Amino acid sequence: LQMALQRGEIEIDYQPLVDLQTRRCVGAEALVRWRRNDGQRVRPDLFIPQAEDSGQICAITQRVIELVLQEQAALLRQHPHLYISVNLAAADIRDAAFVAHSQRLLTKYGVPASQLLYEVTERGLVDVQRASSLLQAQRDSGHRIAIDDFGTGYSSLSYLQQLPVDVLKIDKSFVDTLGSDAASSPVAPHIIQMARELGLKVIAEGVEHEAQACQLLSLGAQVGQGWLFSKALDAASFRAFVARHG
Predict the structure, then answer these.
(1) Is 244 exposed, middle or buried (CB count within 10 Å of its CB: 0-12, 13-18, 19+)?
(2) Cβ of 140: how many Cβ atoms within 10 Å?
(3) Neighbour tally for 138: CB within 10 Å
């Protein structure tokens, strides 16, 4: 991993985020990828846990933010409504090394903080009080905060009372059960209703079928992410996607 960072083997794919009503692209989630020199890719579910255990995840997060702005700053300046979401790990929230790094890069590339959204998971919120303070500071500076995979943990509801949150991301597992007889089928509608009452935006992950998109829209979700709209794209392909759907 250390050599991969030094050799520039860390790359970004962009999973488009689409307005469920207009079907316009409103942004993307930055997905970290590791492509070895021989062209083979290492699966994220293999190297991300290793990076977290070894303490290298903070360097990867900083590299992701740097790549996002290198690759997409011109696009973001051209389309002020677009935003890119970046995942933060527990270690990022503990030491906040990414904060000064991202602020410096945003200034360098002339991109406002509002176009960089930070995603956190419950797993990354071990110290909720510390996380709340850091995330509030980022929110005050213009960033928006999303809770990823909302509803999959045990403390989701309590986090909404303690954390500065703007967006809830519904996990694919709940989207998959919409309209079925599964025990979890009411979860997505309940999350959307709760978000509406709290004034939060909802992004639904793993949208693969038109019926899901229509149902999510009717329930009140605003944004969808998934193969119905697009697979994850490299930097140039994402810019082309925005040109077609922006």
Answers:
(1) exposed
(2) 10
(3) 21
